[in-house]
Design brief:
ADP-ribosylglycohydrolase fold, mainly alpha, 355 residues, two-stranded antiparallel sheet
């Protein structure tokens, strides 16, 4: 694991579209980049989840490496480079999609959530997700997501990356895409804003993985695609703010305006802002999300998935990949998801050996 020099600051940068000399990135590499990026952002944000930006600054200066997560007694709760439920649930979605032939089977996904919840990862689950999983464990029903008493959570948006990737292969059917995002989201969340936030993230990832739009138009495209609610309004705010800034102080000030809580309208917009401000620099995008404070693991994981889908796995910092606890599983899971996406799209021809 690399421990870079503390206090390093990011250079100011303008919003950039795809460079003319940017090398072609294979779709397979984008799949791997997206899932690795998600996990890296999750692991970087995990130790300071729930911290205000000022506390992160006092403790680390500019947090730019994996660190342990400590409890109130300073014991290590989770080691550096460990992932949380955000990544683990996304990987459950990968497994469920592969087992169901590339389609959304709520039961195939839900039983994996239950198994995950009954293990040591339970401490990383949000209250809405916890309530939904406990209910499905008792009832066997997998489409009765909880709404929760607090503002709509971002759990469904944080884990939706595999579906965004799946629909980047082959012909795009918007109706089927939307239906599957809702079906996957309803396993744990029934709040309409939570589902709309998941749709926003999935559509953004699909656009980036298929290389259909440049980063500077991404937020506007996503806001126009989803339903009109606070998620869309906050995305438009993020789009306006993203026209200016790029230096750390300005980015952090903008993110305070957008919000960095677990409320889905804030979390999704914050992630898209961080990516769009730093489209060609994975570390700058993800570390901006981490150092902004708030729901750092969720927002950084979504930022990492966006950046990884755009830049591909080969562009990810080697030290962050090497220090990631879950990297070996993802190195197997991502190609498996890609092959299943090809099969579903009718693009995969299996050569049969002669008997």
């Amino acid at each position: 694991m690399c421990h870079a020099t503390g206090g390093a600051r990011l250079k100011s940068q303008r919003i950039e579209g795809p460079k003319l000399d940017r090398p072609k990135i294979s779709l397979k590499d984008r799949f791997l980049g997206c899932l690795l990026g998600l996990a890296i952002g999750d692991a970087l944000g995990m130790p300071v989840e729930g911290w205000p930006q000022e506390q992160i600054q006092r403790t680390y200066g500019w947090l730019d490496r994996y660190v342990d997560r400590h409890g109130t007694d300073q014991s290590v709760i989770a080691p550096a480079g460990e992932i949380t439920g955000d990544t683990e649930m996304a990987l459950c979605l990968v497994e469920g999609l592969i087992s169901a032939g590339g389609f959304v089977d709520p039961e195939a996904i839900g039983v994996r959530f239950v198994k995950l919840y009954n293990g040591p990862s339970q401490c990383f689950f949000g209250p809405t997700t916890q309530a939904a999983i406990e209910r499905m464990d008792q009832t066997g029903e997998f489409q009765n997501g909880a709404s929760g008493e607090r503002p709509a959570g971002a759990g469904a948006a944080a884990r939706v990356a595999p579906l965004g990737l799946l629909h980047a292969v082959g012909h795009f059917n918007s109706e089927v895409f939307t239906r599957e995002i809702i079906r996957a989201g309803l396993i744990t969340h029934c709040n309409t804003e939570s589902l709309n936030g998941a749709l926003a993230m999935a559509y953004a990832l699909r656009l980036l993985a298929s290389d259909e739009v440049p980063p500077e138009t991404l937020i506007a495209e996503v806001a126009a695609y989803i339903d009109e609610d606070q998620v869309a309004r906050n995305l438009r705010l993020a789009g306006r703010l993203a026209l200016h800034g790029g230096d750390p102080d300005t980015d952090l000030a903008h993110l305070r305006q957008i919000g960095t809580s677990s409320y889905v309208a804030e979390a999704v917009a914050a992630a898209l802002y961080c990516f769009v401000r730093h489209p060609n620099d994975f570390s700058a995008a993800v570390l901006t999300a981490v150092n902004a404070g708030g729901d750092t693991d969720t927002i950084a994981s979504m930022t990492g998935s966006l950046s990884g889908a755009y830049l591909g796995a080969r562009a990810l910092p080697h030290d962050l990949v090497d220090g990631l606890e879950s990297r070996m599983y993802i190195l197997v899971a991502a190609p498996g998801l890609y092959r299943m996406a090809q099969r579903r799209a009718g693009m995969f021809l299996k050569l049969l050996e002669r008997e």
